[in-house]
Amino acid sequence: MANNITMHQQLLCSMLEAIINKALSLSLNGTQGLYALEQKNLVVHLAELGFPLSFIVSNSKVLVTSLSENPDCAIHTSIKTLVALKNEHQLTDLIKQDKLDIVGDIKVAQHFASVAETLNIDWQSELAKHIGDIPTYKLTQFSKKVADKLGFAAKQIQADSSEWLVHEKRLVVTSSQIAAFNLQVSELDIRTETLADRFLAVEKALLSKANK
Amino acid sequence: MSLQDQDNQDNSTHFGYQTVDKSEKESKVAGVFHSVAAQYDVMNDLMSFGIHRLWKRFTIDASGVRPGNKVLDLAGGTGDLTAKFSQLVGKDGQVVLADINSSMLNVGRDKLRDRGLVQNIEYVQANAQHLPFEDNTFDIITIAFGLRNVTDKDEALRSMYRVLKPGGRLLVLEFSKPEQELISKAYDFYSFNILPKMGELVAKDGDSYQYLAESIRMHPDQETLKDMMDNAGFEQTTYKNLTGGVVALHKGYKF
Questions:
Q1: N or C: which end of chain B has fewer CB within 10 A?
Q2: Does residue A42 carry a pLDDT above 70?
Q3: Are both A146 and A47 inside the same structural domain?
Q4: Percent with pLDDT over 90 in chain A
């Protein structure tokens, strides 16, 4: 088992390294963003993984290892939190909630994030290099048509299923029905409170008469 | 008495399954590697299905290398480990790629230069038994798939210990003994029936790959190699089996 983890760990690092460097080589912005990160080491400890991921920049390439010693910046977090970090304003909240722990130079992490955000790949040009301009154009148009049709079909299915559930089978109610029901509940609540007040008043009146 | 002890007492050693004079082994091994050097990387990928790259990555992670370290990649061949170490030690560090075989060293040097890795790498043709470096020179020494080809392994380990700095570590990545009988049988079938044919087909040299299979079987198993490292002076020696023990990574420190 331990051996498997070891090999999976190396396989993951190897694949990440290949994907990152391929993406950087395809980016229209090139690898200029990496110059400031030369020999910098960002270590990310993800809760879902049992080992650290270390990103080291060397000769405008990113090396991915599980070496965790002497990082310039170390981040302890989870994949879910990383997704939430897309919204920069949440950074402070996530740190306060102990969902994110950053040790070291935060600028290194910000710089890595900035490199990732500025990746700009012209997928059509890249595809054209392999299959030619006209097939790429045809394929792109076809993909758009398929995406449009799938989008339309998805909306249609959603509408039809709503119709079936609400009106034919009456398994689900509409939002206006829920709103009307909520209103009725509120009105009943007010009437109940009024009735309770009247009961109290009658009770007080009876008690005062009995005392006399 | 172990095979290694026998070798030390008489003047014979093993070249695959053959028993040869110690003075002969070096030239016979050299012949093998002169023959396979050009196709070495292709054959490595084919023979191991690319897994050798993961074994080497694990070795690098286990080395704990840091920027500024001085690393000796012994029997470094075509420079897979050197390439990664060179990037990790940075411009303040240094990597020495050493190999006894000039053909392997030339292929490695050309490959690394083609990849633009030049600033912190030195190339040295050296015999592991008589390393041409001062005492206490290196932070890390690695020898990947090379130790089994060395004529006197004990002498080589002592030589590595000498050139290692106090606090430094040696990592030996080498074929070893599979942990399970089933894997062992499948591995034997593959090594003796498929590997030489693959070598014949791709590298046009079936004999060299027959030697490879035989030399792996004659190499000390995990525990024996660990004892040999202890005897050479290494401390806190441990090993980790990879791919079911087909390969093992031994690690020892000099304090």
A1: N
A2: yes
A3: no
A4: 31
Q: Give the ipTM.
A: 0.76
Residues in chain B: 255
Q: Do A95 and A182 share a domain, yes or no?
A: no
Highest mean pLDDT among A28-32, A77-81, B33-37, B138-142: B138-142
Judging contacts by C-beta atoms under 8 Å, the chain A residues touching residue B87 are 56, 58-59, 61, 63
Instruction: Tell me the C-alpha to C-alpha distance, in Å, between residue B37 and each of A198, B106, B121.
Output: 102, 9, 20
Tell me how close the Cα of A59 comes to any Cα of chain B, in angstroms.
Answer: 7
Contact yes or no for B146/B82 (Cβ under 8 A): no
pTM, rounded to two decimals: 0.75
Same domain, A48 and A107: yes
The verdict on A76 and A133 lying in the same domain is no
Q: How far is A44 from chain B (nearest CA, A)?
A: 15
Predicted confidence (pLDDT) at residue B3 exceeds the cutoff of 70? no
Partner residue opposite B241 with nearest CB, options A3, A59, A66 = A3
> d(Cα B39, Cα B44) in Å, to the nearest integer?
9
Whether B86 maps to a domain, the answer reads: yes
Residues in B closer than 8 angstroms to A6, CB to CB, are: 58, 240, 242
- Which one of A121, A145, A180 terminates a domain? A121
CA distances from A131 to A126, A142, A160 (A): 9, 15, 40
The range of the structural domain enclosing residue A197 comes to 124-211
Count the domains in chain B.
1
